[in-house]
Write a structure and sequence with these properties.
The protein is mostly helical. Helices cover about 75% and strands about 0% of the residues. It is built from 24 helices and no strands. The longest helix is centred in the middle third of the chain and has 52 residues. The N and C termini lie far apart (about 75 Å).
């Protein structure tokens, strides 16, 4: 079987995924007519479908390719990434899922204004949503280009262009109503694309005698150092700090990701939002059973000391290395299609969240003009969709990739340092003042953004400072919370009027009369 045959299989798989995305999106377009359809799918998405859609957009390229690559490189220490990704939804379920749905908002900036009654806090939240979304989109576009190049040899810009075109067509045409169907379909597509080759490779590994653990790790490493968390000897300073900072970013950052939160506004009510989150935990937990398999088997069939493939491409290259011939080619093509589904689903969710904010807060900033059937706002949303992809596309072309999981982790860190404190304090602490909320966003956003820029642009060498900057959550999150609390206590006169009614709205079950709350 030649490389040309494999390229043909991979291209067919990718084109089929893109075609399925456009067809399902076109079906959803038939139901997208109003502003509410475009922003929140008219709040009529049930828990099962919404959970599949959330899982589809949440399980990005960092999950499909990056986690296996990190385990391949660093051993089971990197299992903290899927643990953190999943645990974030437990925090989201317990603390904010139902109150966010009850807020009645369209976007995170909407929630910020409803709770804080401040256009300043709204604008700051809007800027952060766009910044986090762009940073998260960057590895999706870069990864698409690198993955397509890995399996076909084409220039990296081809993969980026394909993802951008499919996403813009899907989002601009049908908005949230259309993308919900697409992302739900893509979750199951990604799960099957990852699971089927994994079972085949495990069967092959077992049938060939299944080499022992030390053979998998390699002669140059201690088995205990490779599989036991926090004991691995590494040249990276502050490895224990790095682990806990990563967990903080992932657990709190999930609730601050704009493309995740916006989906909870599509549920009919608060209980449905909670049920959705419960199902999501099961779906993403099931998905994360498979990336470690690729990381471990990569050590068997592509030994680290002799491999000439990047860690992020281990998933795509492993079947061809383990099964030379038609079977390996087909399995790699299936994985290539699944990887492209990951790029498309996550990019779609991010573009919707960014476009919604740009349409409301930049193109048409007056919240009162957001009304069902407003064709002008729908046109603004479509224009915002194009704007939403322009900056990350340019960045994908002119910046070198930092690594899928590492870049996504920076986006989590910024979200955890800014929007997560605003949401937690806004939902649960009635003494949060407008000045305190704004100060917390400013301090957390400034610190996390500086750390991200230095890490992405300067890329300092291994040192304690480089580790602290590449894993900023452990110091940025406490700084943001402390700032919000201290400034709020110093400015009690800036607590929003009517806070009791707003808090009752967030925490009172649907159907309960609130007329007596002042």
């Amino acid at each position: 079987m030649s490389d040309q045959d494999f390229k043909a299989f991979a291209v067919v798989a990718i084109l089929l995924v893109c075609a399925a995305t456009l067809v399902v999106g076109a079906y959803g377009l038939r139901f997208s007519r109003t502003t509410s359809d475009f922003y929140v799918a008219s709040r009529q998405v049930g828990p099962g479908r919404n959970a599949s859609a959330i899982s589809g957009e949440y399980l990005s390229a960092a999950s499909f390719l990056g986690v296996a690559g990190l385990i391949y490189e660093n051993g089971f220490d990197s299992l903290w990434f899927p643990v953190g990704y999943t645990a974030g939804y437990v925090v989201l379920l317990v603390l904010v899922a139902a109150p966010l749905r009850r807020s009645g908002a369209y976007t995170i900036p909407d929630f910020a204004e409803i709770r804080m009654q401040s256009t300043g806090v709204r604008r700051m939240s809007a800027a952060l949503v766009v910044a986090i979304g762009w940073l998260y989109l960057l590895p999706q576009f870069q990864g698409a280009g690198l993955s397509l190049q890995s399996v076909t040899g084409w220039p990296t810009w081809v993969g980026t262009v394909i993802v951008v075109l499919v996403v813009v067509l899907g989002v601009a045409a049908g908005g949230m109503r259309s993308i919900t169907l697409v992302q739900a379909m893509q979750y199951w597509l990604k799960l099957c694309a990852l699971a089927i080759p994994a079972f085949v490779l495990l069967w092959l590994w077992k049938s060939q005698g299944a080499p022992g653990p030390q053979e998998v790790v390699g002669a140059g490493e201690s088995l205990r150092e490779w599989y036991e968390p926090l004991t691995r000897s590494t040249d990276e300073p502050l490895s224990l700090y790095s682990t806990y900072s990563t967990l903080m970013a992932l657990c709190l950052g999930t609730m601050g990701l704009p493309h995740v939160l916006v989906r909870f506004y599509t549920n009919p009510d608060g209980p449905a939002a909670r049920r959705t989150t419960t199902v999501v935990i099961g779906l993403i937990g099931m998905f994360y059973l498979f990336p470690p398999i690729y990381g471990v088997l990569g050590r068997v069939y592509l030994p680290l000391d002799g491999a000439e493939v990047a860690a992020d491409q281990i998933v795509l290259q492993l079947p061809r290395a383990a099964l030379p011939g038609l079977t390996g080619e087909l399995l790699s093509a299936i994985l290539a299609g699944g990887a492209f589904a990951a790029f498309l689903s996550t990019a779609s969710g991010l573009v919707i969240s960014i476009a919604g904010v740009i349409a409301q807060d930049v193109l048409r900033p007056t919240l009162q003009r957001v009304t069902a059937g407003d064709s002008g706002l729908i046109q603004s949303f479509r224009l915002a969709t194009v704007i939403a992809v322009a900056v990350p596309v340019a960045a994908a072309v002119f910046t070198a990739p930092l690594g899928l999981a590492r870049t996504v982790n920076l986006a989590f860190a910024i979200a955890a340092s800014t929007l997560a404190p605003l949401l937690l304090l806004g939902v649960w602490w009635r003494r949060l003042s407008t000045t305190g909320a704004f100060a917390g966003l400013l301090v957390g956003g400034t610190l996390a953004t500086i750390a991200t820029i230095v890490t992405v642009v300067v890329r300092p060498e291994n040192s304690w400072l480089a580790t602290a900057l590449s894993q900023p959550a452990a110091w940025c999150i406490p700084a943001s919370f402390a700032t919000s609390v201290i400034v709020s206590l110093l400015t009690p006169d800036r607590i929003p009027s009517g806070v009791s009614r707003t808090m009752a709205r967030l925490h009172t079950p649907e159907g309960v009369e609130l007329s007596s709350v002042r």
